[in-house]
Amino acid sequence: MPGTIADRVAQATPPHLAGRIKGFSDRTIAWIFVAPTIFLLLAVNIFPLIWTINLSFTNFRANRPNREVDYIGLRNYERILTDSDIWLTMQATAHFLFWTLFFQVVIGFTLAWLINRKFKGNDLWTTIIVLPMMLSPAVVGNFWTFLYQPQIGLFNYLVAFLTGVDPSSFQMIGDVVLAPWAIVIVDTWMWTPFVMLICLAGLRSIPDYIYEAAEIDRASKWRQFWTITVPMVLPFLMLAVLFRGIENFKMFDLVVQLTGGGPGSVTELTSINLKREAFEKWRTGYASAYAIILFVTVFGLASIYVKALNKVKER
Q1: What is the DSSP string of 166-183?
Q2: What is the pLDDT of residue 8?
Q3: Are residues 50 and 145 in the same domain?
């Protein structure tokens, strides 16, 4: 059998091309196959990023393409960083991020720990638990909007049963205080299974002999949990937080379906605010600068977090 990649490719090509291919090195053949993918990635990702950076220094408006475009330097960035409304959306996003990650980590790890104990019906319950993450955000948003309805929503009747409050007066997605928690509940319900699966993979990667050695040393279950289970699952847990943190920072469709950013602007996350600046107010240059600031923020935080994750994995 031919020993080089070029020889193998030549065998699978028409005779009039085989001679040319045999003259290529393995490195050249590899680049021939990889180059289209690299070019496509550059075209789809790098070019729009460069174009957005360029627009961020202008007063360009997409609804006025024939208007003369002026380069205004860092003025868009200065306006964004000093705009109190922008900081309110950042605050709403931080609230959403913190509480969704907190609940998903706690509940997801707990469910993974319970399922890992391998009880009767384990596979059935695992399938049921992961069902929410298989649904599209649009379906989940409509489903929970119905559940939150003051007159007929089952969620309101459940709260009324537990607290004694009249369900018709309970406005989960219409109340300034409760609306942020409404989207936290829905996102937690939908994506906790994702965290659970990653934690479950971590739990099942721990060798049994470690626990057996701990049993011989007469370590209690509580001590085994904190000295074996948690440290060995921590890299998986941190990975889940990284994935969910990035996804929730750019959360859009689910919140739009549930609250549309209201009431007022209490659930207007940065992604929703960015869309309004770009496609409702048509301040394209301003929105481009806004997008670059969000990109740098996410990229910077993710880079710091990945370094911390690598340090944990090296222990």
Answers
A1: -GGG--TTTSTTTHHHHH
A2: 55
A3: no
